[in-house]
């Protein structure tokens, strides 16, 4: 039983990924989920109309009819998608907020998926209270990155796409690449070592936080890395995107949400 008392203490977030779209109600005081998380497969092809309808379906399952936070797997500026590495290319130039809001019938705040995860970890998780530069890396279908400088988010980094050994880093070091190629944890850790060492040299962070669904198994690969930067698993694991999206939507000046009964 959750006694939230005031409507503004409850938010909702939906996390759009290359393979799945998941959402939950969020207690904005603690970052914890309220009730069940719902998930549907990402439509293929992942066009704006298909994805927007799927997001609306998840919100309906949650019983949520108010302002929604929604992540997007690409750069988002002014609500508009600028890249679309793991969804259909027709998203590029599309207003994510407008497309999802039209399907939902309520205001939407769109944010890069890794930025949402970084915000959540800085507020409730492994990056909370860290006085310095924190790099949050989400390992999933691709590689998402977020940078937190003294608690403030630096948005829309795309460091999963840096070139290493002549190829896009996420094509070799993402969690999807490990599964696709049947790599052992040790072999995959070797690729992560190369990737994280490059990020260390570029950014000199004080802490690296690793998120995404694979972070639940961080003990399988993090101990195999040899870095000068402390590296830890995300506290919120794969929940961070949903939590961060809900937080961001709550911070935007929008009409108060209608709280499900």
Describe the structure.
The strands form four sheets. This protein has a five-stranded mixed β-sheet with strand order 3-2-1-4-7. It has a five-stranded mixed β-sheet with strand order 10-9-8-13-14, with helices on one face. The protein has a two-stranded antiparallel ribbon with strand order 5-6. Helices cover 30% and strands 26% of the residues. With 261 residues, it is of the alpha/beta class. A hairpin with a 5-residue loop joins strand 2 and strand 3 (33-41). Mean pLDDT is 92; it is low at 1-7 and 253-261. The protein has two domains: 7-115 and 240-251, Nucleotidyltransferase, domain 5 (2-Layer Sandwich), CATH 3.30.420; 126-234, Nucleotidyltransferase, domain 5, CATH 3.30.420.40.
Keywords for this entry:
single chain; about 260 residues; alpha/beta; Nucleotidyltransferase, domain 5; 2 domains; five-stranded mixed sheet
Write the layout of secondary structure elements.
Layout: E1 10-16, E2 20-27, E3 33-41, H1 48-62, E4 68-72, E5 76-77, E6 80-81, H2 96-104, E7 108-112, H3 113-124, E8 133-139, E9 143-149, E10 152-154, E11 163-164, E12 167-168, H4 170-173, H5 175-181, H6 185-203, E13 207-211, E14 231-233, H7 240-251
Parallel strand pairs: 1-4, 4-7, 8-13, 13-14
Antiparallel strand pairs: 1-2, 2-3, 5-6, 8-9, 9-10, 11-12
């Amino acid at each position: 039983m959750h006694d939230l008392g005031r409507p503004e203490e409850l938010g909702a977030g939906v996390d759009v990924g290359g393979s799945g779209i998941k959402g939950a109600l969020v207690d904005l005081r603690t970052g914890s989920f309220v009730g069940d998380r719902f998930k549907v497969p990402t439509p293929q092809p992942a066009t704006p109309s298909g994805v927007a309808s799927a997001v609306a379906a998840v919100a309906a399952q949650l019983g949520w009819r108010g302002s929604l936070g929604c992540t997007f797997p690409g750069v988002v500026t002014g609500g508009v998608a600028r890249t679309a590495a793991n969804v259909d290319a027709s998203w590029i130039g599309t207003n994510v907020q407008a497309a999802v809001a039209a399907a939902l019938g309520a205001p939407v705040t769109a944010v890069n998926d890794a930025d949402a995860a970084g915000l959540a970890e800085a507020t409730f998780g492994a990056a909370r209270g860290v006085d310095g530069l924190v790099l949050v890396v989400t390992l999933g279908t691709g590689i998402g990155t977020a940078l937190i400088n003294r608690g403030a988010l630096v948005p829309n980094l795309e460091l999963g796409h840096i070139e290493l050994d002549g190829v896009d880093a996420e094509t070799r070091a993402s969690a999807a690449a490990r599964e696709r190629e049947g790599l052992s944890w040790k072999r995959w850790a070797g690729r992560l070592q190369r990737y994280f060492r490059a990020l260390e040299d570029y950014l000199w962070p004080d802490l690296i936080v690793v998120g995404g669904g694979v972070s639940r198994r961080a003990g399988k690969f993090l101990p195999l890395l040899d870095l000068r930067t402390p590296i830890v698993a995300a506290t919120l694991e794969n929940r961070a995107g949903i939590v961060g999206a809900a937080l961001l939507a709550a911070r935007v000046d929008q009409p108060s949400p209608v709280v499900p009964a």
